[in-house]
Amino acid sequence: MAIIPKSLQRGTGLRTVFALYLFLTLLLPLLTLVVVAFTDEPANPVNLLLQGRAGEFCSLLQRFSWEPVREVFATTRYQQALTASLILSAAVAAGATLVGTLVAFAASLSGVPGRHLFASLLPIPLAIPPFLGAIGLKLLAGRSGMLNHLLSPLGLPWPSELIYSYGGVALVQVASLFPFVALNVRAALSELDPSLEEAGRTLGGAPAWTFATITLPLLAPALGAGFLLTFMLAFGDFGTPLILLPPSQKLLILEAYKDLTGGLFWAEAAIQSLIIIFFVGAVLLLERRLLAGREYYSLSVRRATVLPSEISWFRRGLGFTAAVVFALPLLLIASMFLLALAASWGARPFPDALTTANLLRVTVAAPGPLLVTAVAAVLTIGCSLLLGTLAAHFFKRLPGRGNTLLEFGLSFPLVLPGIALGIGLIAAYNAPPLALHPSAFLLILSYVLTRTPYALVAVRAALEQIPGTLEEASAALGGRPIFTWRHVLAPVLLPALASAALFIYFSVTHDISLTLLLSPPHFVPVSISLYHELDSGRNFLAAAYGTLLFIATAVPYLIYSAKQR
Amino acid sequence: MRGKLEFRSVTKSFGTHRAVDDVTLTIEEGELFALLGPSGSGKTTLLRLATGFETPDSGEIVLDGEDISRNPPWQRPVGLMFQQYALFPHLDVQTNVAYGLLAQRFQVGSPVQRLALLGGLRRRAWHDPEVSQAVRRALELTEIAPLASRRPAQLSGGQQQRVALARALITGPKVLLLDEPLSALDAGLRERLRSELKVLQRRLKLTVIYVTHDQEEAFALADRVGVMLNGRLEQVAPPQKLYRRPATAAVSAFLRLPNRFPGILAAADGHWQLTMDAGVTLLWRGQPAGVAPGRVLAVIHPEDIAVYAPTAAGSKPGETYCPAQVVTQEFRGPLTLLTLALPCGLCYALLPSQELPVGHEVTLGLDPGRFILYPGEEGGNHT
Ligand SMILES: Nc1ncnc2c1ncn2[C@@H]1O[C@H](COP(=O)(O)OP(=O)(O)O)[C@@H](O)[C@H]1O
Ligand SMILES: [Mg+2]
After folding, report:
1. ipTM rounded to 2 decimals
2. pLDDT by residue (tens digit) across B101-120?
3. Closest partner CB to B55 (pick from A2, A473, A475)
4. I need a labelling partner for A424 at 20 to 30 A (CA). Which of A217, A392, B62, B256 fits?
């Protein structure tokens, strides 16, 4: 289109920059993973090439063989881990889809008791990532958790071991992932044309019949997308199994991490990372196939139309279900609050004494982690928004060959499990001349890579809302491109950018996988401090950090949603 | 000097499709030119070439002697009004109308002024005396001054149209381009705004290109009408002449001239004879204009067909008579449109309203001199 300056019209420069960026941050780590996996050596092909050691590089390539991969697949431990990962993620996705759909209905259908409350609570679990949920569960119901303390002296054995299992992991993941489905289904519901269902009624359809034959099929894409998205997120979730899973129960993502950090089994870690990436990538491609041209990652909180619903037991059941669903995360958070305020806690329902010492300790007394998290969040938000905005403009205005690939590369990291990416980055950048690991730079680069998709998706969706004629009207009235950008595009883009910034902020402050692998000793954010405190059994401090994280995400969210109204 | 716009052999293709095909056209100063054509014929593309949203593959666009084909849109003194108006939804009417002035200030301003203009528009649109006065004049011109503080979403279709017009006029463009400006409105409002627009155009001596697919609208408004078909400018003429003498069969079809009789033209003992497939024969003394012997298409306006009672056949020199039967009659106020059955085929006649019951036998009087002949068969179907 002619509005773009000639110099940018072919976009070659920008395309090269994107390609180079993706090569360094995504492709190179993946290639290194491949080399390490197939040669069984922690070799770094790029460094060899950069240092001009082409001979070694060639001999490395000659050592390529399927042997390491075959070995991994023949090992019972890994077989179990893979099977368990797939089954668990599928079960979690199914559970989250079911729960999310029910909650979406509860928040959308008129006549459901508590509908407005559910609608406003809906995004709250997004501020409780699986990792935080797992900690909450452990603090509430774990071995040294509150319930155990409270009940065992009364002679009531609390089955605390139950939560240290696949079941516990699934519970936490469903409870924190269902909003992804619910928000999508709710958006789809709000776009449903009520006259369709009304048409079904006038043709003699009973409410249940029109629901099954009209509403449900129309929601199918949203449900499918929700299932696949939560599958990917559960498959790549690291924090929950890290905290809840005992050594006897295995998951791929945990084994990969342990192989690297415990025994420096490079090849095994790399192979498992590749398997993880393979499955996530396959699901992502499947999703794109199924939903070609539809945007279902939308995280925006939209107003739903009020569908008619006559069946009263159905409405009451929905209300009840939603109340139960929201109760769990709220209970977890409430108990974490209480724990954070406790000075000590005996076998009683409430702490012996309350204190602000824990909370002061993690904020004022030792503000390091808080500052690190703030710095990391600000940098990541800035870079991701810039990159995402540029890319979204670019893809919309300059269609061309190679865009699909670039776009896939830029948006794929959204679901790329942090452990797999982190292992790849370490493998690629752990030795001179590009010895970037461990460094704050590499950590933030990995954040930017994985969070840019939020911005990209948000800006693209916003740009779709602006008819091209508006920009043309501005240009025809004498508006130069920057003037047009500021006065026609920005008013629509800024809200989208704000919501993207918010979600990037959530996900960076909650990150555990990339951070655990990549953060250098002097750059430890809140999420890792929390993990360390928990690991050393200092539950009050862990709870204080958890509370801090929750408040630090819930408060900006509330401010944001208040501004939206 | 104000607004002489020339297209010189302008061509624009999208892929293999020629949206605008070798168009040469001069629009004179102060002229109201209507660009008429069916949807998809390239009208919008021609306007977009003039505004700079598209660049021609070949040819030039010249405004007052200056080639502007390569200027970006924001550096052309050309105003444009969009089909759906494209009002900025987040700005009030005042700021929408002021937009062009502020954009121009941004173009010529100092860096500090530019920065300030990136800050916000609303305050300037309301409180800068020069700007707000110009806005007020434009709003008064289009009679919507009381609406200045509304948002576009709070306006009716007709009001939006007026805002869009005020917005397009405020920068004083040399040429104003209107792309189907009234098509989103209902019929009554359309006619009123149409005549207001013409009055305004005359008063301001604007050069206007008015794009429409509605021939009635084009005829009512324009000094000259250009008919576009398939990217080509088929004919340019004043409305009267265009209607009476469509230059090609395709134009006549687009104008929905319903009486279309294919037949064979031949020279026979000093006469030229057309044998229509409909079963009627016409005779000319000399060779009819524009055609050679062979297959031709004969077209006649419905109002040019005379209808007589079967017995009271007239005897105008040269007129051919043939019997016909009334199939339907359509009441059109002062006139009635008759559909009549010929020996083989239908024909349509428009005459002052009178009762002619269905099934009634009549005699038609066909004057060969009123027929327009086109070479070839049907030639273009633009109904
Ligand atoms: N940007 C474009 N890309 C491809 N084809 C286009 C584009 N703009 C217009 N066309 C095609 O050019 C032809 C003319 O379109 P247009 O000028 O909009 O016609 P009109 O305004 O007379 O309805 C149509 O066939 C249309 O599909
Ligand atoms: Mg058009």
Report:
1. 0.80
2. 999 999 888 999 898 988 88
3. A2
4. A392
